[in-house]
Amino acid sequence: MSRGKKSAKSKPKDDLDSTHRLCQHCHQYKLRRGFPQHQQFCAATLAIEPPSKRPRLSHQTSQEVLGPDTDTINDTVHEPQDTVNPPSLLDSEDTEPQQPLHAPALPQVYIKVLPHPHSPLPITITPLDAPSGQAGTTFIPKPSNKPWAPFRTLEDFEITEFAVTTMLKKEKVNTLLAGVNERWTTGGSKVTLHRYEDMQESLEYARAYVVQFTSDEVTVPYKGEMHTFKFEYRDPWKYVLSLVRDESLAPLHCWNAVKKFYCEDGKEERVIDEPNTADTWWGVDSELPEPDPYPHCFLPLHFWLDKGLVTSRVKAYPMILRPAWLPREIRNGSGNGGGVLLGYMPMVKDPADPSDRKTAETLEFAQFKRNVYHKVLGRVFEPLRLPSHHGEAHCCGDKVVRILHPGILIESQDGEEATYFCACRGSLANVPCTKCLAPKSELHRITKRFPLRTPETMKEALQKARQAPNKTQKDKILQDFGLHDIDHFLWNYRFSDPYAASSYDTLHSDDIGKWGKHLWPLLLSVLEEAGRKGRFAANLAMFPRWANLKHFDAVTTSDIKDGQAYLDILKCVLPCIVQLLPRGSALVHCIRAYAKYRMLVGMHCMPESRRQHLIRSVSIYEKSTEKVNQDHDKNFAFPKNHATGHVGDEILNKGTTDNMTTRTGEGFQQEAAEAYAQTNKKQAEHQMARIDETQEIVARIRMLIDNDKKAPELQETQSDEDEGDLTELSEQPRSQTGPWEPPQTISGAPPHWKFGSPSQRAESSDLESISEDSHFVGFDEKLRTFLLEVVPEERLRFEDTIECAYIHYQSREDWSLARDIIRCNKLFHGRERFDCVVVNMDLPGLVVARVRALLRCKLPSGKVLDLAIVKMLSRTQSWKPNTVWSGCEVHEEDKNPSFILMDYIVRGCLVSPTFDSKAPHMFYLVDTVDEDMFLRASNIF
Fold this sequence. Notes:
Layout: H1 16-19, E1 20-22, E2 29-31, H2 35-48, E3 77-79, E4 109-115, E5 123-127, H3 154-165, H4 170-183, H5 196-206, E6 213-222, E7 225-234, H6 236-244, E8 258-264, E9 267-272, H7 279-287, E10 296-305, E11 308-309, E12 315-316, E13 318-323, H8 328-331, E14 340-344, H9 359-390, E15 392-395, E16 401-412, H10 415-421, H11 455-466, H12 471-481, H13 498-501, H14 506-529, H15 533-541, H16 563-577, H17 586-601, E17 606-607, H18 608-632, H19 639-642, H20 647-654, H21 663-677, H22 684-723, E18 753-755, E19 758-762, H23 764-770, H24 779-790, E20 798-802, E21 804-810, E22 817-828, E23 831-834, E24 836-839, E25 847-858, E26 864-875, E27 890-893, E28 898-901, E29 905-909, E30 911-913, E31 922-925, H25 931-938
Parallel strand pairs: 10-16
Antiparallel strand pairs: 1-2, 3-5, 4-5, 4-8, 6-7, 8-9, 9-17, 10-13, 11-12, 13-14, 15-16, 18-21, 19-20, 20-25, 21-22, 22-23, 24-25, 24-29, 25-26, 26-27, 26-28, 27-31, 30-31
C-alpha cells in the first residue's frame, strides 16, 4: 500500500476500509491495530489545543507529542505513530506558522527510540536521570494441570531431570530407580518409572517439544573418487518458527529496526548497540514491502561454527544458531530463546601428510574441504532459502500474523573457519581478507580502504575464471581474488551477504590475536633480552587485586590459552613494565595505543562520537605499530591486524562487537566434550545429537513447570495493577534494625551504597586506643568537628566500623546500573587491602582517594550517617615514569587523612604502585579496569 500523502478529507482506496479506521478527531485513517489508543490520544490532544494550532511534527524533532495530562515524565512515554500519514511528511500547503505545542516536559537526559516507518510501534522516550518504574509487557503463563507431561507424575520428571543433568549412565539409573521404588522409601513412591527403558520411553514422547535432528549426507569428489559424508542437523526454519510462536518470548521480539538517540539539553546523538539499531537491518526493513495488510519482518540470524577438542585427540565441529532479533541477554544465554545446536560439521580427514604435498595438491585438498563445508551448509540452510526471498506468513506468539523473511546477518568464526565459510583461500593467500581485496603485502596498512567483496563481484570473478582459456589463467584469476572455484551456498539467499556477515571477533582478533600471539610474545622477548622478565613477573604478582580482574603469580611461566586472561594482563601490564624498558619506549606507546583501542572496541554501547574516537584510535595504533616495526623488526602485516580497519563499519552495520564475538559460542565446546564423554565413541555425532535433544527436552519441561508455579502470583500482580492497588515504592514501610533509621543522604535520595556487616561497634573515643592505625590519632576530636559542620544539631553517640561497601552507580558505557565492591582490610586473603574511590568534587579531572576506614555514625535523633576516612591522591608532575604514555596519570597520596560523606563517593577505582621506582607514595591511575572508568578518565562520552 502506498504511503504517499493524502488529504485528510479525500476518500482512501476501498481496501483501506478493511485494514484501517477513520479517526473522528484528526480525520485520518489509522491501522485497526492500536486504534483505540490512537483515538484516546487524539481526544486528549484536542482538549489541550485545537487542530488549527497543532503542528505536524517531523520524526527528527526532539520535542514530540509524548502523551496527555502529565506535566513531567518519570517513566518511558510513547508517541502514537501515524501509520498512513507519517509525521515526517509535512503538508506543503500548511503555510500557517507553527505554534508551540503544549506537551509534557521532556526529561533533561533521555534515550529516544525512533522505529522504522514500517513499524507500528510509537516513538519511545526513556529518561536516564531517574530510575524507570515501567517493567514493560510481562508474559503471564496459563495454569496447566500437568506441565510435566508426557511424564506421568512430577516426580517422574524430576528424577529424569536429575539423571540427565548429572549424566548418569544406564546402570546408575537402574540402581537409582530400584532404590527409590523399593529400598529407600516406605509407604510407596510417587515415581512410576522402574527401569532405564521406562525413562527413555517418556523422553521419546517428549521429543515433540523440541526441534529434532534429521539425518542426511553429501557426496563430494576428490582425486577421482566420490567421498560420502553423513551428518545430522536441525531444520533452522523449524527452530525459528518455534521461537516466533513462543508466547513466553512474544514480549521480547524485536520485529523492526529502530534508530536510537541519546538526548540531552536539546541535542541528540545516535547510539548503536543491538543489531536492530544498526544500518543493515534498517536497510532491509526499507527494502521489504509495507504492511499489505500483514507486516513484513526481517529475522536476522547469528551463525557460529568452530572446531574444538572434545578429548585430548578427538575434535568436534559444532554449529550454533542464535536469533539476532531477540535481546542479547536472551539469545546469548542457555535458556529459552538462546542458541541452538544445529548439528556437527563432518570432519574431513587428511589422507596424506600435508608437508609432502606440492602447492597445487594443497590447493586441491583445500578446495575439497571447502566443497564439503558448503555442500553441508547448503543442505542445512536450504529451508531458509525460499522464505528469505518471498517470506512466509505465520501467526506469532502475540497472535499477530506476520510475513517473516529470515537471513544470515552475523557469522562469527575464527580466521580459518571464516575463510571456509566465505570460500576464500586463507591467511597465506595473496588476498586473504574475507571482507575486502586487500593484498597480503598491505595488511599492515589498516586505515587504507580496499574494494569490498560482494556476492556480485565474487560471482563475476568466478565466472571470469571459469571462462579462462587454460588452467594457469584460471588459477591466476582465482588467486587475484583469493577465491576457490566454489559457488557460495548463500549466493541464492536474500538478505544474506556472506562477506558482510563475516564479523569482527574481539576474542580471536584481539585477545588471543593481536595481543596474545603478537604483542605479548614480543614484550616477553624484549624483557628477556634485557634480563628483566623475572622482575616483570614479580611486579604483576604484586599488582593490586580488583573484582573481576584475574591475578597472576607467575605469568611469564604460565601457559595462557584463555582470551579473558590475556585481556586482564593487558589491563595491568603498563605499570609493571614501564620502568623496565628504555625511556620513550615505542613498545610502551604501542601497547597503550592498542589498550585504548581494545577498551573502545569492546563497548556494549556506541554513540556516534564514541565510534569516531574508536576510528581515530585505529589510526593511532597503526602509527605506533610502524614505530615498533622500526625498533623491533616486528611485522604487522597479518589478517587479524588488518581486520581492525573494518571494525568501525562493522559496528555501524551490525551493532556493537559483543553481538559478533565468538566468545558466546566457546562455552559450548565444554558441553560438546561432556556429551562426547557419554557416548561409546562410535558414530559419536549421532549420540551427541540425541543427548542434546534430551537436554533440550528437560530444560523445556522445567521451564513449563516453573512458569506454572509462577502463574498465580503473576496473575494476582496483574490484577492488582489493573485495579490500581499497588502502593508506590516510596510509600512502602522500610525495614529497620533497632531504633536507627536507614542511612541519610544530603539530597534526601536513597543511598547509592550499601555497607557490609560491621567489624566492631565502639565510641569514637575508644577507637583511638583499640586501633593501631596512625590515621586514628586524634580521631575522636576530628570526627566530632566534622559532624558539627555537617549536622550541627546532632551529637555523636557511637559508630560501627565497616570493612566492605557496595557502591552503585550509573555506568557511562551504556547507562545501566553498575556496582563496585570497596574493601578496607588490614588482612584480606593474606594481604593488606585498602581500595580507592572516585570522589565527586568540583575539580578538573578525576579526584581519587584511598579508603582507610568506613564508619556508620549513630546519632541521638536516631539518624544514621555513613562516612569514610580517606587519604586523597593528587595528580603530580614531581615524578614521571621512563615513558609517559597517552593518558598516564601519576598521583601522590597525602599523609593526612580526611573525612568525606559517602554521598560524595562516585565509584571505586584502581591505582597501581609505581613499580621499580623510588617513589613509594606515587601511584598510577589504572583507567583500563573497566569501560566506565576508561570513559571517565579519558573524558569520552
